[in-house]
Amino acid sequence: MELSEIEDLPKKLLREEASRAFRLQALRAINATEKAKKAYEDGMARVAEAGQAIQAHANLAKDTQAAEWQVKVYQAKFSEMSAALESAQLTAKEALEAKEAVQVAFEELE
Q: 10-residue block means of pLDDT along the chain (110 residues)?
């Protein structure tokens, strides 16, 4: 080995060491970027899930409100039907009493 080659040896080793250090830093930067990307994607997935949960809750609240309105409508109809039934029963009772009165009147005529 010649003297010039020996003098260039530290420079070459230094360049190789610097190159290795650069590759190592680049690899670390790439790994950190990939981790950050994964964390971002996980966060976005969680945000999407939360959005879906909020929408489901809103739909459930809307459905509950509609069901409560239906219950009120059916309660009003039930009240109307109960009143109509009570009126029909009273009318039937009055008709029965009138029938009995007519029968008594016929019996008295005979």
A: 64 84 96 97 97 98 97 97 97 96 87
In the numeric block, the tokens 């997935």 are attached to 45
Rounding to the nearest 10 degrees, give the CA dihedral for residues 48, 49, 54, 60: 130
CA 59 distance to own-chain centroid: 7
In angstroms, the CA 52 to CA 59 distance is 10
Residue 88 vs residues 36, 94, 99: alpha-carbon distances, Å: 77, 10, 16
Is pTM beyond 0.70 here?
A: no
- Please state, in angstroms and rounded to a whole number, the distance separating the CA atoms of residues 110 and 103: 11
Q: Read off the tokens for 87.
A: 């009126």
